[in-house]
Amino acid sequence: MGKNKNKKSNVPDKSHLLLPNPIAATTPIIDTHTHLLTTFSAYKSKYSTGKYDTIWDFVQGVYYQRNVKAIVDVWCEAPVQPAWKEVADSAVSAQDRAEKWGGIEYWFVMGMHEAKLYDDAVERSILEAMTHSRCVGWGEIGLDYHYDNSPRDVQQRVFARQLRAAVQLGKPLTIHTREAEEDTERILKEEVPVDHKIHIHCFTDTPEFAQRLLTHFPNLYIGITGVISYSTNTNTAALVRQMIQTGAGPGAASPDGDKDKPGPRILLETDAPFMVPSNIYASLPEVKGRLPLCHTAMIPWVAECVADIVGDGWGSVDVMQRANENARAVYGI
């Protein structure tokens, strides 16, 4: 008993969450997919003596002077957490964003990820959220055949239902899909107009699947998280290489000189508190162990990993600039 009490925690000190500023941080950071309440809860769980007592304290403290411009916060739990409104309402006015958010632009999307918990009451809550001035999309929603937390027929039915509701409202879509390529592709093509704005969040499936979606939906974008840095995931890296090779280069023209060729349709995201980029530890040589949570200020390391993978004249700044342009195209932020 006494031995366990005296055992040192292998969680790095909370000071290490305050990251160094990489070169890429000269470019504004836009995180297109973060779970802010879950990230803050993870912080409080791992660092019970931490000095940040509210979401706003956490954001202002951890993101201070890290050039974070905007975040898209994701609410996808059931039942819908009532905290969403307090958080969103605190970002309505420019004055509140300056005082409570340190000038960061807070936006959010809402949907239902757990299909078996979706019902009329949940849908009414989501529809209410869709009218909020800081809401920029419906999600995350979709199919997950890896965990199969809901029966697959229920997943498909609820996915289609939410897609129809979002399309009717003209809201951009944030899609989760994992090991469900055939059904995801079929349902998207059945329910979503070709020109609708779509963000395939944290893509890890086959490059061929992604290319079919990119070809069919000209306003579909692929979200890249820190998972691209993991040796266990080769699909995302292969897809990004393809997208860079077939899209425009870091300048106005693509590598073959075609100035009219569109740039790669990538978005940068963290999916915080999950998936800390593995390449971040090279910038934190003093850290022993692994950071217990990811957060928005880690975006430059995601961009750095993308740039290292694709080469061809791309730097992390080029990746971030392209992703920021795409974030404006999808979410208007």
UniProtKB/TrEMBL annotation:
PANTHER family of this UniProt entry? DEOXYRIBONUCLEASE TATDN2-RELATED (PTHR46363)
Domain of life per record: Eukaryota
**Which terms does the record give in the GO molecular function aspect?**
hydrolase activity, acting on ester bonds; metal ion binding
Q: Which Gene3D superfamilies match?
A: Metal-dependent hydrolases
Residues that coordinate or bind a divalent metal cation 1: 140, 271
Name of the protein in its database record: Hydrolase
Q: Cite the binding residues for a divalent metal cation 2.
A: 176, 201
Organism source for this protein? Boletus edulis BED1
CDD domains per record: TatD_DNAse
Pfam families, alphabetized: TatD_DNase (PF01026)
This protein's UniProt keywords: Hydrolase, Metal-binding
